[in-house]
Amino acid sequence: MAAPTAHAADIYSYAGGCYALRDAGTSKYVVADSLGYSASAASVAAATPFRMQATALGRYLLYGPGGKMPAAGALGSVAPTSTPGPSADWKLTDGGTTVGIENFSTSDSLGVNGLGRVAQGTPARWTFVSASGCATFPEVDVNVTGTPFKGSSPTAKVRGFIDDHIHLGAFEFLGGRFHCGRPWSPYGVTVALRDCPDHYPNGAGAVADNFFATGTPVGTHSPEGWPSFAGWPRDESLTHEGTYWKWIERAWRGGLRLMVNDLVENRALCDIYPLKKNNCNEMQSAFLQAQDMHELQDYIDAQFGGPGKGFFRLVSSPQEARKVINQGKLAVVLGVEESGVLDCEEFNDTPKCDKAQIDRELDKLYAAGVRSLFPVHKFDNALGGTKFDSGATGVLVNTGNKWVTGKFWSADHCDDPDHDNEPTNPTGDNAATFYQVFGPVLLQPLFQGQLPVYPPAPLCNPRGLTDLGRYVIQGMMKRGMIIETDHMSMKTRRDALALIEAAHYPGVISSHSWGDPGSQKRIEKLGGLVGPISSVATQFADEWRVARANRSTKFAFGTPFGSDINGLHAQPVPRAGAAANPVKYPFRSFDGGSLIYQQHSGTRVYDINADGVDHYGLYPDWIEDLRKVAGNQIVDDMANGAEAYLQLWARAQAAAG
Hints:
Layout: E1 18-23, E2 29-33, E3 36-41, E4 50-56, E5 59-63, E6 69-72, E7 78-81, E8 89-95, E9 98-103, E10 110-112, E11 118-120, E12 126-130, E13 144-145, E14 161-166, H1 189-192, H2 207-214, H3 245-253, E15 256-265, H4 267-272, H5 282-303, E16 312-314, H6 318-326, E17 330-338, E18 346-347, E19 350-351, H7 355-367, E20 370-373, H8 391-405, E21 412-413, H9 428-438, H10 440-443, E22 459-460, H11 467-478, E23 482-484, H12 490-502, E24 508-510, H13 517-526, E25 529-530, H14 537-549, E26 587-588, E27 595-596, E28 600-601, E29 604-605, H15 608-611, H16 619-630, H17 632-639, H18 641-656
Parallel strand pairs: 14-15, 15-17, 16-17, 17-20, 20-23, 23-24, 24-25
Antiparallel strand pairs: 1-4, 1-12, 2-3, 4-5, 5-8, 6-7, 8-9, 10-11, 13-27, 18-19, 21-22, 26-27, 28-29
Helix pairs in contact: 6-18, 7-11, 8-9, 12-13, 14-16, 16-17
């Protein structure tokens, strides 16, 4: 019988593999016993097999039978644990044909002591030898077969869907304790998809989630994510993670090739929400989230065997994005959607920024890879006026506007087809509900004195683009950045588009249905894009038809979708009447190369017809649902979305000179 193969020390290549651990000094294999672990087995067959579960590039859990993992213990010991975490996290160091192993928590080396016990602090050299019988590490399934499609060359025209508005970093925003779960954890799905502590035991403490989902803070839900997903994610739940990395992988395998990940923050809501661990400064949050995206990229690389090998690739130019997509991978663009962007808030009509600060912050964002930006988000700021929110959310956001600017929104009656939304007066039942959510002691001073009383609709925000706002638009054009016009008031948006049109600048987009009909026509005439926000298939199809009717024949046409997932936007619900014309599983991806089955997460099996888009992995199913209601043309236009965006971006880059 041939001797077992000792694998060369490529510290990244072990990911997901099944190995026995051999002490190079004694040629003995590690075996679990009643006292912990010893280097005493004479053969691979007698050794304990470990599943090498990557936690980061070059770091692993050694996942053994029964879910037991060697971990750093007291007094330099190594003991089994069932809890994945830093003490069970081991870093490999390359040493030619052998490796060194260090504990991530203690930084002590893994070795063998004089009694043959595996211990810390006694350095040894190790080899990994192929084994069998490894336990399976818990993970979400993808349920897509086939090879992801590629382009014919690095510069070829691309095909694939684009989500032009997503929030992968939302687990950090509003202080980092508002959002439950995260797209990944070094220690796997059982850690990543865990509910917030204040949601236990029955969701009654999830007052913000209840408020956004139902308009009242009173409610319950099961806090269980993995493995049953009995409580979340749900299409109507706005505080639970919807973009776990395996769900992103499913969307990629289903045809997604480009996404714009908007780094998101809102200082007022962060200040008001009582639970937090992060600083509420919006720019600091943006840079933190940008760093998180590099860590997510590295984590996915680690699962695929090393740097650059994963499907998730951050890009900073249209040329780089084109190359990535033609490699069959997912290009990820960084954007920023913040109410106090560039630290340009204002208070009582006094700006908190100047032109020098604007240039500094734009340069810092650009250096961090940001290529898309909203000058205005939920609140009025030193750059311009905002488009109002309505309903219960409007009460909360208007209160935030008062918190940050010193004033509630102003609104004038305006008989204009492109009018803004109708704000809700923060009085009566709405205010009482809001008090219950965030606490009367904290917010009572905001509601003293003159409360706004808005005239009959239709209404418009009288605030337009300020001089500093014009400077930001000009600065973005100079840098070749994509200008997001959504969330601007009608007046601000018209002012901005006039400036953009005068410069013949094509880098403009409405990414998630927060514009107006008049501006959307102007955007498409400039060569920009209109991406409807994701919604039930019949509604999205209606918005697609409008965008298609307004398309310019001078430019490539494609239809993005703006999922706005994790961004306080409910995801598409099941289509009414789906039973008569359902999505049938399995179905083919738009290119025909992949077969897409029902998605399994733990013990939960999802069906777009009954569940809607409960999580991001169901977007391929949603696109198939669009085909059911609007035919092949809508899917073709969406598959042209990535190419249309890259052409827009390249034109903006050229216009910047």
